[in-house]
């Protein structure tokens, strides 16, 4: 069964691009337009990994991750941002982010990180 990845991104064109690339790589994709939408969809969909933007309306990526961790969710989170600084990276990791990417990034780099993560998960299932 293919892993399910939630993409949390407020820009619809970027969200569609993620969906297209991830589905072509064999993943199931659930889309959310911000943190509030993501939390609502997580009540219905089980996701193996979340890729979230940092800056979004209503609820940003940091608040989303903080809420997930407060609710004891161990879902793996990759945060992406166009506004990356050492300070925002520290804040992201303190909030509970597992990996951090600065936009623009090469999709192949994201794919390598996803493959590495899911390979580790599959080793644990043996």
Please give a structural write-up:
- By secondary structure, this protein is α/β, with parallel strands linked by helices.
- The protein has one domain (4-124): Response regulator (Rossmann fold, 3-Layer(aba) Sandwich), CATH 3.40.50.2300.
- Helix content is 47%, strand content 20%.
- It contains five helices and five strands.
- The chain has helices at 12-24, 35-42, 61-70, 86-95, 107-124, and strands at 4-8, 28-32, 49-53, 76-81, 99-102.
- The chain has a five-stranded parallel beta sheet with strand order 2-1-3-4-5, with helices on both faces.
- Helix 4 links the parallel strand 4 (76-81) and strand 5 (99-102).
- Helix 2 (35-42) runs parallel beside helix 3.
- The protein starts with a strand and ends with a helix.
- The mean pLDDT is 93.
Set down the secondary structure blueprint.
Blueprint: E1 4-8, H1 12-24, E2 28-32, H2 35-42, E3 49-53, H3 61-70, E4 76-81, H4 86-95, E5 99-102, H5 107-124
Helix pairs in contact: 2-3
Low-confidence stretches: none
The CATH class label is Alpha Beta
Q: CATH H level: which superfamily? A: Response regulator
* Largest sheet report: 5 strands, parallel
- Helicity, as a percent range: 40-55%
**Cα end-to-end separation:** 15 Å
Q: Helical stretch count? A: 5
**In the CATH hierarchy, what is the architecture at level 2?**
3-Layer(aba) Sandwich
Quaternary structure: single chain
Domains, number = 1
Mean pLDDT across residues:
93
Would you tell me which CATH topology applies?
Rossmann fold
**How are strands sequenced across the largest beta sheet?**
2-1-3-4-5
Based on helices, strands and strand pairing, what is the structural class? alpha/beta
Order of helices and strands: EHEHEHEHEH
By DSSP, the count of extended strands is 5
Strand content: 15-25%
Cα gyration radius (Å)? 14 Å
Net shape:
globular
């Amino acid at each position: 069964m293919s892993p399910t990845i939630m993409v949390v991104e407020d820009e619809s064109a970027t969200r569609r691009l993620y969906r297209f690339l991830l589905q072509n790589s064999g993943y199931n994709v659930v889309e959310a337009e911000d943190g509030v939408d993501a939390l609502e969809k997580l009540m219905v969909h089980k996701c193996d990994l979340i890729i979230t933007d940092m800056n979004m309306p209503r609820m940003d990526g940091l608040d989303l991750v903080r809420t997930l961790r407060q609710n004891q969710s161990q879902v793996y989170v990759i945060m992406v941002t166009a506004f990356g600084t050492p300070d925002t990276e520290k804040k992201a990791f303190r909030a509970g982010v597992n990996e951090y990417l600065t936009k623009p990034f090469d999709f192949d780099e994201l794919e390598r990180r996803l493959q590495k993560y899911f390979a580790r998960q599959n080793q644990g299932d043996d």
